[in-house]
Write a structure and sequence with these properties.
The chain has helices spanning 2-9, 12-39, 66-117, 122-133, 137-164, 167-174, 179-215, 227-235, 243-269, 342-350, 377-386, 394-397, 404-416, 420-433, 439-442, 452-463, 482-499, 510-516, 544-551, 592-596, 621-628; strands at 298-311, 314-327, 331-335, 358-360, 363-366, 369-370, 387-390, 470-474, 502-506, 519-524, 527-533, 602-603, 609-610. The chain has 632 residues and is an alpha/beta fold. Among the domains are: 2-269, MetI-like (MetI-like fold); 393-468, no CATH class.
Amino acid sequence: MKRRWYAVLRTPLGLTATVLVAMILVLAVLGPELWTTRANVVDTGDILAGPSGAHWVGTDNLGRDILYRVLVAGRLSVALALAATAIAIVAGLILGAAPFLLGRRGGRFVSAAVNVVVAFPGLLLALFFAVIFGVGATGAVLAIGFAGAPAFARLTQTLVAGLAARDFVAASRIAGVNRVRILFRHILPNIAEPLIVNATIAAGGALLAFAGLSFLGLGVQPPAYDWGRLLYDGISAIYVNPAAALAPGAAVLLAGLAFNLFGETVAKGLGITNKVGGVSSPVPETSSVKGSSDQPDVVLHVDDLTVSFPGPTGDIHPVRGVSFVVRRGEALGVVGESGSGKSLTALAVSGLVDVPGRVEADRLELLGTDLLGRDTKARQRLLGTSLAMVFQDPMTSLNPTRRVGGQLAEVAHHHQGLGRKDAMARAVDRLRAVRIPGADRRVRQYPHEFSGGMRQRAMIAMGLMGTPALIVADEPTTALDVTVQRQVLDLLDSIRRADDVALVLISHDVTVVREVCDRVLVMYAGRIVEDLPADELTTAARHPYTRALVAAVPDLDTDLDRPLAVIPGRPVAPAEVPVGCAFADRCPLADERCRAEDPALIADGSERRVACWHPGEPLDLDEAIDELVEAP
């Protein structure tokens, strides 16, 4: 960072902008102290004089030296511009953060209002507000400040919306941290840089706008004066002494240009570039899952879970009637192609599906507590301490502006009431538990100082800050190399076995799930199409889709002379789920019944469930797979 700043300041643009802004600020501070007396001297014998050795840019209609007045006016001009910029930033932050704080419904009105107001030119808004707040310096500051707020609000809305979708924000929400705290602790520090850049540029714009209002007689009033007021006075004598208008005009132009160029310099110094401001109904499961949350070993009970979003022609159901149970110490794998509903099911369980999404279920319980009930502190505490969520990308799972130890300690402080020292000691202990060497030193480091595998371990440690009964790992090894993948999976497995923790592992990798998990759910088009023991995944799968997934994974016995097997066709989009079995168009075993009726998920009396009209069709498995997959 220091090297980048040094390199930027050595460029002609960076050096010029920095020097100009420094000179203007020094002038604003020292100008009135040095030259106020000379600027106020009245000489009626030298009225409206032109430039001379005594008065470099002439005198005004009272014989006062214009150059000294321009130098003195710098303080008021800059101070008023900075005050207006501060108002614009504060108002813009409040309006821009409103959708996040108020939720979709409450924030929709604010967003609509900002979108309407931002369409109007800033100067027009400033004139409008100037009429409302009245003539004078105070009214002009408020007018320019509120006129600049919509642009900051739009920028803030965009930045906050991007950050709100990040995993570390979702993790804070799972922990029960309220939105205001998330905003100040996690979101605002991460959007500070572009806001600072735009604030610097906006200061130049505010200075120009303020000079314009004063020039129109709506800003600073006599006997006070700023550059705009001096420009107004100089215009009246422009034919007698053009320098009287040129001097304050040049000061406005130079100061505005300096702030704008300095904004560009700050952007480069911070490393910011080019930043500106027919639907099917859900299909219910006709078979119930074994187990009940009333039993002491049941951790998670999901029955007929449906997630829906509004669409142009009706509700879209990316998750349709999902039912399963997870017991203590059990590892449940969830596999399927992208878009099958795996991650959305995990988000629904974790309470992370925002409006307009709707989560409905006959039963959705964690340790016997209804997760669809009212959002109480007890529910937040349960999700924050008994449920650990490990997200897919470790780089987005942690707040890049906060030290790792502080992020872990926040969980213990918020939910367990530990003091700062005890919470940090707990963070060190949890980092050691996930086998991060030098935990005492690592807690003081930022996420970018961790490797990818260590960041993922830190995320697991955050989940272990409480006493989790369930760990939901959504593609936890996707961004890691093979060696680190093995280490993370071994760590999750050891934690599960040591503390009798239930694990839900979501993955595209059938091989990983088969090795780590006890049981596997196979999802397609938002439904569970097969539920079977993991050790039977490659030998006793009964659904054609499960067989295709297994066949598409090469192993040591794969014939290298043949193209790799693939599943024909494309996955079904949630908004285009057909009548009947969603897999029928890609399945060589499909018949007219498959295309007309959607099979229910039926238990076969053992530990298996399958939704297929032709489960375990009595065909040679190799022949069935050859028909099911097609070579490119």
